[in-house]
């Protein structure tokens, strides 16, 4: 019943209700609510807490609030950032809002206090209500074991019906609507009825929820039962001979036990087999795991082949199958000698660099044969994807190991000879840098634990003998080059080509074309003519094609005309191969002014380069023709600058270069020419034309020039001297700094050639001018 009225500041609550006896923290950020609390603190610290009907209303009026709320004592205020205050209140009494008397700056209401009339109920009714509440609470606590023991103990001690009802509403998870209903009930009997209904409904809800959980559990148990039945069905199928993944799994486990591998590898395979057992044999995941297990079982983890220890036999095989290539043979025999002494020894990583057709790939096969190693060839030409080397991760569809692991699997042993062919042809794109992926493979310190993305287990590559091949080192990145031992395979001389053709290529082509040595004979002079007139290359690949063409025509002649034997000599060679295609320009018959023979290196060997210079009256024009590159143009400019600087030494007039035009030309204008080895040649030709002094026709030269007339070293010396010998040159001028390279050139090339080492243009002119 209403006892008395008073004015109290009002705080509107959103989504919560406060009951008498309840102590609670809440945050306030609306200005009107903050000012209402501050006003209460200045007076008697009392506020009326009313719940909003709609939590989203920002400025509630009387119609937006429930009429019954709780008078609360504000015990503490804490100011927080963002104009928010945290309030600690204790609910004291129920109260009804009669009217709002002030709306600005905060709500102030005329409030009627509601006091509970405890004298309306008799002692028996109170005891009955108390006992009924405690009985239903006991059932509730039994059904809902999540309620804390402290709450149960607190509620068990209360002996006042009204206080117990309020504490039940405060401590148990009851909805906001139910709390507001209890708040609005004015007498104890009504509140008792309402709390009993609420608790009974809560108990029913908990029981229904438990029933639903039980049904779900039964369904899960049913699935488990189905799984067991499937396993039994699998066993029945195996008994009937319809073996599925179970039989495969057992065979994998047996193979894993017999595998020559470390415990780590075996444990990984056994773990994957256990996974495979639990996957349906027809599923895509089962196929992926099957492929992975079979790859792991196929790898030669600790399986090795025994290398040959007979150095003499290995040397015989290399000599028999390859003519020349002394450096390569020597390095392989050194490796074998170290292996004999140390029993193991680290395998070197060799890189054979040279022009096409010089036998780089075939010598790797011979080395494998000489050492009794398994041979694996991996072609890297055009490989752009890093995954080709490192493999794909197993998460991708169609994943597979990289080429290195695939090669190891195909070899069947962990110490094969692995040929990385055309290592200078690998490239990079958005899928990764292939050459960077090769760094780990070709590093003797890192490849002991090479990790392929597909295999995932470290694989030991330290016992693999890697041999790489490249046509040029220009395309190989520096870090990759640093990990390999470079062995240059230079061009073959005419004599070497002759021996290779006679001992290796001709017998091979005769056999390949179904002939015998009794049916076809090629004279030595014919072979020499084929080498000189029909091929122009550093290697012997084109030479082999020409010999193949002779064998085919001979086979046709034997079959069609029933000839017993076909003889090929230098006289009838044209009948088999047609007209000669190439001819080296021999030395000029007489010494000439302004014409000098230079030497050049090309991808197919060495060549001679005739440089011509003409001087004519004009206005000091300097012209270069013959499709020259930037390097050669700069060499020519450096040469003319040197000549002008020493013009008085040669009796050249001071105004000579202003009154005369100089034209430098290199014949074969359609062929691009470039390189740092024609400097002294062009300077000599220009000085000869200017001074009208002839240059020796039997002299060739190579070297770069500086502005001060110094001669710089060059490369490709063997090929250049070979070209000079082919052109019948008697004297070759070579930079002094290249003297050390002469020791590596075979004596047969140097025979008949007089080498002159030059360090300055003065020395060049001393030897070159007639």
UniProtKB/TrEMBL annotation:
The active site is at 677, 720. ATP binds at residues 354-361. It is an enzyme of class 3 (hydrolase). Residues 8-203 form the Lon N-terminal domain. It holds the Pfam family LON_substr_bdg. It catalyses: Hydrolysis of proteins in presence of ATP. Induction: By heat shock. Its main location: cytoplasm. One of its GO terms (cellular component) is cytoplasm. GO terms for biological process: cellular response to heat; protein quality control for misfolded or incompletely synthesized proteins. SUPFAM superfamilies: P-loop containing nucleoside triphosphate hydrolases, PUA domain-like, Ribosomal protein S5 domain 2-like. It is found in: Cytoplasm. ATP-dependent serine protease that mediates the selective degradation of mutant and abnormal proteins as well as certain short-lived regulatory proteins. Required for cellular homeostasis and for survival from DNA damage and developmental changes induced by stress. Degrades polypeptides processively to yield small peptide fragments that are 5 to 10 amino acids long. Binds to DNA in a double-stranded, site-specific manner. Homohexamer. Organized in a ring with a central cavity. This is Lon protease. It comes from Anaerocolumna jejuensis DSM 15929.
């Amino acid at each position: 019943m209403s006892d008395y009225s008073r004015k109290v500041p009002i705080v509107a609550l959103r989504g919560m209700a406060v009951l008498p006896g309840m102590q609670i923290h809440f945050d306030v950020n609306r200005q009107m609510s903050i000012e209402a609390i501050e006003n209460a603190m200045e007076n008697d610290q009392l506020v009326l807490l009313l719940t909003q009907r709609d939590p989203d209303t920002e400025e509630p009026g009387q119609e937006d609030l429930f009429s019954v709320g709780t008078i609360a004592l504000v015990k503490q205020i804490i100011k927080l950032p963002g104009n928010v205050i945290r309030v600690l209140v204790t609910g004291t009494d129920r109260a009804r809002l009669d009217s709002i008397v002030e709306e600005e700056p905060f709500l102030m209401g005329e409030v009627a206090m509601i006091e509970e009339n405890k004298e309306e109920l008799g002692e028996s009714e109170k005891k009955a209500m108390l006992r009924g509440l405690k009985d239903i609470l006991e059932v509730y606590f039994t059904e809902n074991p999540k309620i804390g023991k402290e709450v149960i103990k607190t509620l068990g001690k209360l002996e006042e019906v009204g206080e117990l009802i309020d504490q039940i509403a405060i401590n148990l998870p009851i909805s906001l609507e139910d709390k507001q209903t209890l708040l609005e009930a004015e007498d104890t009997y009504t509140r008792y009825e309402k709390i009993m209904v609420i608790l009974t409904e809560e108990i029913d809800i908990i029981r229904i929820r438990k029933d639903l959980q039980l049904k779900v559990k039964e369904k899960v148990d049913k699935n488990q039962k189905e799984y067991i039945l499937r396993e039994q069905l699998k066993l029945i199928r195996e008994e009937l001979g319809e073996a599925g993944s179970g039989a495969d799994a057992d065979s994998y486990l047996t193979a894993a036990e017999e595998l020559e591998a470390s415990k780590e590898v075996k444990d990984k395979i056994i773990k994957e087999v256990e996974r495979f057992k639990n996957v349906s044999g027809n599923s895509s995941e089962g196929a992926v795991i099957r492929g992975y297990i079979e790859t792991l079982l196929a790898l030669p983890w600790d399986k090795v082949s025994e290398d040959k220890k007979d150095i003499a036999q290995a040397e015989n095989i290399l000599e028999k199958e390859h003519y020349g290539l002394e450096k390569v043979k020597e390095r392989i025999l050194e490796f074998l000698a170290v292996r004999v002494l140390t029993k193991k020894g680290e395998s070197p990583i060799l890189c054979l660099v040279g022009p096409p057709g010089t036998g780089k790939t075939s010598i790797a096969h011979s080395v494998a044969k000489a050492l009794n190693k398994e041979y694996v060839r991996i072609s890297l030409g055009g490989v752009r994807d890093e995954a080709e080397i490192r493999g794909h991760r197993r998460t991708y569809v169609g994943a597979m190991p990289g080429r290195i692991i695939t090669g190891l699997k195909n070899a069947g042993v962990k110490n094969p000879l692995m040929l990385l062919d055309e290592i200078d042809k690998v490239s990079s794109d958005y899928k990764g840098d292939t050459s960077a992926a090769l760094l780990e493979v070709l590093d003797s310190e890192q490849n002991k634990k090479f990790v392929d993305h597909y295999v995932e287990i470290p694989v030991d590559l330290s016992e693999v003998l890697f041999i790489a091949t490249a046509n040029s080192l220009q395309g190989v990145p520096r870090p990759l080059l640093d990990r390999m031992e470079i062995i240059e395979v230079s061009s073959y001389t005419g004599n070497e080509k002759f021996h290779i053709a006679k001992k290796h290529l001709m017998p091979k082509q005769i056999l390949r074309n179904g002939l015998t040595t009794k049916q076809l004979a090629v004279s030595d002079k014919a072979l020499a003519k084929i080498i000189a007139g029909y091929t122009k290359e550093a290697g012997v690949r084109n030479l082999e094609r020409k010999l193949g063409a002779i064998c085919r025509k001979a086979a046709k002649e034997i079959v069609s005309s029933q000839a017993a034997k076909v003889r090929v000599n230098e006289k009838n060679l044209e009948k088999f191969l047609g007209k000669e295609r190439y001819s080296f320009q021999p030395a000029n018959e007489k010494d000439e002014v302004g014409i000098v023979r230079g030497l050049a290196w090309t991808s197919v060997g060495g060549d001679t380069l005739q440089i011509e210079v003409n001087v004519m009256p004009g206005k000091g024009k300097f012209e270069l023709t013959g499709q020259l590159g930037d390097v050669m143009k700069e060499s020519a400019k450096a040469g003319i600058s040197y000549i002008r600087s020493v013009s008085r030494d040669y009796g050249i007039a001071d105004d000579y270069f202003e009154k005369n035009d100089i034209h430098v030309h290199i014949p074969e204008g359609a062929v691009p020419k470039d390189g740092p080895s024609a400097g002294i040649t062009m300077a000599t030709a220009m000085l000869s034309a200017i001074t009208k002094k002839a240059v020796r026709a039997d002299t060739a030269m190579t070297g770069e020039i500086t502005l001060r007339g110094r001669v710089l070293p060059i490369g490709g010396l063997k090929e250049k001297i070979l070209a000079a010998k082919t052109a019948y040159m008697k004297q070759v001028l070579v930079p002094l700094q290249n003297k050390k390279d002469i020791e590596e050139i075979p004596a047969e090339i140097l025979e008949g050639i007089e080498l002159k080492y030059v360090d300055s243009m003065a020395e060049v002119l001393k030897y070159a001018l007639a």
